[in-house]
Amino acid sequence: MEIVGALKRFGKEDTNRQPFWRRGARKAPEMTVAVDNISLTVQRGEIFGLLGANGSGKSTFIRLISTLLIPDGGTLRVFGHDVSREERTVRRMINRVSVEASFFKKLSALENLMYAARLYDLHPNVAREQAVFILRKLGLNEKRLGEPLEHMSRGMQQKVAIARGLLTSPVLLLLDEPTTGLDPRSKQDVQKFILQMRREHATTVFLTTHDMDEADRLCDRIAIIDEGRIVALDTPENLKLAVGASNGKNGTTTMEDVFMAYTGKSLDDDFEPSEDFDGE
């Protein structure tokens, strides 16, 4: 995956009524730059992490990669395919799991997965076998596969969302805070399966997370985004070594120390601009 100069802005024109002598005039729109000239490359089979506080631009960035948003500048390619000009090809290569995953809540977990499989032209028998296998690996009891999703906990629904993302064995798997709401055991189940997917299928994973330990454990490299810009990018170990050398905490530096050193923020600061952002 190759990104060069990615740019995304949001804004809203001020439509307040003007004096009669300026009727028809409008103020210039107030624009917010959510993704500001980002360039990076993610190698095939790499697990790449993106860390940022709320409002830093990380979710907007992942939506650009997944073709859900159109960039205002720059180029984004998924293994040679431009996300703007070859949208359908890119969508066949990727799958996305987000913290706000949507379902048909009246349908069961298995029915939701079988519906997703049909959208990707997977054979029903193969899809069913794969769905049961993935859900079992994620720690979901097979007896509950026929239970309506509306009867399941938030954490169990998230497991189904992750299974849906893995069902198609995507070349690029976009994980936008996938383990939010999961208990520690379930998080471990998900993390183990992500590593297994990379090991057995050379799946490339692009991960955003609020869990610093998760990023440290899973990611080959980590980028830190702040106010729409990448402020640090390296392996977890090198990032900790660099910060440890500057603060005298060599050997005990954590990813949380790294994040604070580069951004001066907590993960809960601000808010995440979206396609509905209105500048307020």
Low-confidence stretches: 270-280
SS elements, strand count: 10
**Could you name the CATH class of the domain at 2-8 and 33-101 and 171-263?**
Alpha Beta
The coarse overall form would be: globular
Q: Provide a count of the helices.
A: 9
Overall pLDDT, averaged? Answer: 83
Write out the CATH superfamily name of the domain at 2-8 and 33-101 and 171-263. Answer: P-loop containing nucleotide triphosphate hydrolases
Alpha carbon gyration radius: 21 Å
Q: Please, could you describe this protein's structure?
A:
The protein has helices at residues 58-65, 87-93, 109-119, 124-137, 154-167, 184-201, 212-218, 236-247, 255-263; strands at 2-12, 30-41, 47-51, 73-78, 81-82, 94-98, 172-176, 204-208, 221-226, 229-234. The protein has 280 residues and is an alpha/beta fold. The chain has a domain at 2-8 and 33-101 and 171-263: P-loop containing nucleotide triphosphate hydrolases (Rossmann fold, 3-Layer(aba) Sandwich). The strands form 2 sheets. Strands 6-7-8-3-9-10 form a 6-stranded mixed sheet, sandwiched between helices. The chain has a 4-stranded antiparallel sheet with strand order 2-1-4-5, covered by helices on one side. The protein starts with a strand and ends in a 17-residue tail after the last helix. The model is unreliable at 270-280 (pLDDT under 50).
